[in-house]
Design brief:
alpha/beta, binds L-homoserine
């Protein structure tokens, strides 16, 4: 890239791809000034080049042949925005082997094939940057890798899925219905092609894998940690926890170092309304990072959406151009942990919601079971009986080991007086 001109090829003219084109349309002059070189968007490849994406584009840039990008010797940086595992992986590897730097937002691919992608970039002396893969437009990976690099990291707590946060916010603040809000999130382009990735926590898990690798040096595949989404969260629990306990619910990705092990998990979490993360609403994301010297740092911004994500993609391109001599892509990072803590050994407070037959002695039976499993209770509330003579009970425990609570809940579940499903929601500690 020693010439005075840098050419970029884009693969994938979808939501974010169109955002990249729009940034070039509006800001190409300042992009070039910032790096001191003419920066061009030279080719845009997609199988569909006829659908109107709502952005102006010179038709000469468009191609249906991906090799027009991958094999063009004048293209220095390839942006991959098609998402999914294949053919995205093949295209990225080919671009790297052809000596091109690669920018991607493909968290699923990066979380699954981290080692191969990074190794191929390093072997081919090219950069592989993926700031947009975590937290949309929020700078997260570069701060972890550079500005905060003096620290040993202690913990990361992240609200990292815009769709899930949008749904939980609208359910909490406006009493909206889950399915209605999901539909709006899809229309606004926040949700994944398959929205179960958003709702069931997989998208958050993929982002957490990337953050945990950068912060703790440990690559933890998704099958090795606990992931629970928000589909079981109902309006009653949100309302009760808000009014009676002063809690807000968020889908959190948590990676925390305890002695020599790493706790890593994704689940809906209640937290005090005055926690910094509690005020992160709608499609916004925030990641709360604790470093040993810097202390807590919170990075906040739009975690999904066309323009915010495109902003991170183009930022990565400029960083590559600006730091031409920097050749190592995120690594090697030395692991700082010896083992991954089993979810059963993690410690939380719990919110337990269940329906019981409204008759004498039931509460006592339940509290005895909890006591026998070493669980101490912070509060217990019986709401007024339902028409079918069942009474909803809400129990909040003190901090306890997850496996103790799971064992106790299994026993409580076996009681004839307990009706329906018992709901367990973890509460964020200090
Ligand atoms: N579906 C993702 C979200 C998009 O809702 O956050 C950004 O990764």
């Amino acid at each position: 890239m020693d010439k005075n001109e840098v050419n970029i090829g884009l693969i994938g003219f979808g939501t974010i791809g169109a955002g990249v084109v729009e940034i070039f349309n509006k800001n190409q002059d300042i992009l070039s000034k910032k790096v001191g070189k003419q920066v061009n968007l030279k080719k845009v490849a997609d199988l569909d080049i006829t659908t109107d994406r709502g952005v102006k584009i010179d038709s000469k840039l468009l191609t249906t042949n991906v090799n027009d990008v991958l094999e063009d010797e004048d293209i220095d940086i390839v942006i991959e925005l098609i998402g999914g595992y294949e053919p995205a992986k093949t295209f990225i590897l080919k671009a790297m082997k052809n000596g091109k730097h690669v920018v991607s937002a493909n968290k699923a691919l990066i979380a699954k094939h981290w080692e191969e992608l990074i190794a191929t970039a390093n072997e081919n002396n090219v950069r592989f940057s993926f700031e947009a893969s975590v937290g949309g437009g929020i700078p997260l990976l570069q701060p972890l890798n550079e500005s905060l690099a003096a620290n040993r990291f202690e913990a990361i707590y992240g609200i990292m899925n815009g769709t899930a946060n949008y749904i939980l916010t609208k359910m909490s603040l406006e009493g909206s219905k889950f399915d209605d809000v999901l539909k709006i999130a899809q229309e606004k382009g926040y949700a994944e092609a398959d929205p179960t990735f958003d709702i069931e926590g997989h998208d958050t898990a993929q982002k957490l894998i990337i953050l945990a690798k950068l912060a703790f040096g440990e690559y933890v595949p998704q099958e090795n940690f606990y992931v629970e989404g928000i589909s079981q969260i109902n309006a009653e629990d949100i309302e009760f926890a808000s009014k009676e306990l002063n809690y807000v619910i968020k889908l959190l990705g948590i990676a925390k170092k305890t002695e020599d092990s790493l706790e890593i998990r994704v689940h809906p979490t209640f937290m005090e309304k005055n926690h910094l993360l509690a005020s992160v609403n709608d499609v916004f994301n925030a990641v709360y990072i604790v470093g040993d010297f810097v202390g807590p740092v919170m990075l906040y911004g739009q975690g999904a959406g066309r323009m915010a994500t495109a902003s991170a993609v183009v930022g990565d391109c400029l960083d590559i151009i600006f730091n031409e001599s920097k050749r190592i892509s995120y690594g090697p990072v030395i692991s700082q942990v010896n083992k991954i803590k089993d979810i059963g050994d993690t410690i939380s407070k719990f919110y337990i919601s269940l329906n019981v037959l409204d008759k004498p002695g039931v509460l006592q039976t339940i509290t005895k079971i909890l006591d026998k499993n070493g669980i101490s209770i912070e509060s217990i509330t019986q709401k007024s009986s339902l028409e079918n003579e069942e009474a909803p009970i809400i129990i909040v425990s003190h901090e306890t080991k997850e496996k103790n609570i799971q064992e106790a809940i299994a026993k409580v579940n076996d009681l004839d007086e307990v009706k329906g499903e018992i709901k367990l929601i973890r509460i964020l500690g200090d």
